[in-house]
Amino acid sequence: MYEAGSIVALSGGHYRLCEPLAGASYGVVWRAEAASAPGAGVALKLVNLEQMARAPQALRERWLDSARTELAFLRTLAPWDGRHIVRLLDSGEHQGMPALALELLDGDLATHLAAEQAAGRQVAPLQALGWAGQVNQALEKVHAYGWRYLDLKPGNLLFERATGAIKLADFGTNRRLDDLRAHSYAGTANWQAPEQFFPDGDGYLTGAACDYFALGALLYYLLCGRLLRYSAACGQAWQLHGREAAAALAEHGRPPILQADEAALFAERIGPAAATPALTLLRRLLAHRPADRPRHALEISRLLGAAANALRQPPVRSAA
Question: What are the pLDDT digits (tens) for 225-240?
């Protein structure tokens, strides 16, 4: 149990808990201040001790492995590689559990987008492409360091209001790229590639291409303000059936990933000038087969650049 005012000691200093910011199955995030510099805020990520005490041993071990995985990844990053990845400021253990002090941003992209939708505002096409480009850069670093992310979604993208920049956070689902074995379920059903949602035998065979599929689902969501029907169906099946979701959904036939009216809506939102390159990118990212998705971040960057450049071109005026 954590309380405001409590002190948490990490390797680099002491932090006073101020207020809770977020919570998940095994973790809680608090806004905290460095005891040596009042007013210097950090996001302190701690293991949820109450949940940990109630969980069976196997689940506790999995949660601890996730916390250690996140810490291991963030510790390997060079300072210049963290432009669109949340920065690790300090780390250590609290009550025998891993603890991380992260840079404090203004909230997550899911909350920001919900507020914009409630106010009747849509994400501008150039903004959507810019955010997708930032996420692509973050994924490139994750992959370059030998990991696949597997949980890309607006709730795991932190938002900096002053600059409009976003940063990738929450790396507990990371898995090594060189580990090709089928693994247990990981991630969030609404944003998963087919191979991450539908098991192959007793496990899931995933790779970096899963992250590119999620980037496509995110780009669609940013521009259209809604989930793909495929993604929504996977999420609903998971809510209703849990681990049996894939089998339940497969009974009625897997829904197509990008339907014709969804592609038309995406083209309408991006505008006629950029519709062709943007749709080319979207279809590549959302390809059913991992091998048909982009091979690397540079390929995605070029297609994003083509769409952005098309949007920036002045309209052609017809002759009088």
Answer: 999 999 999 999 999 9
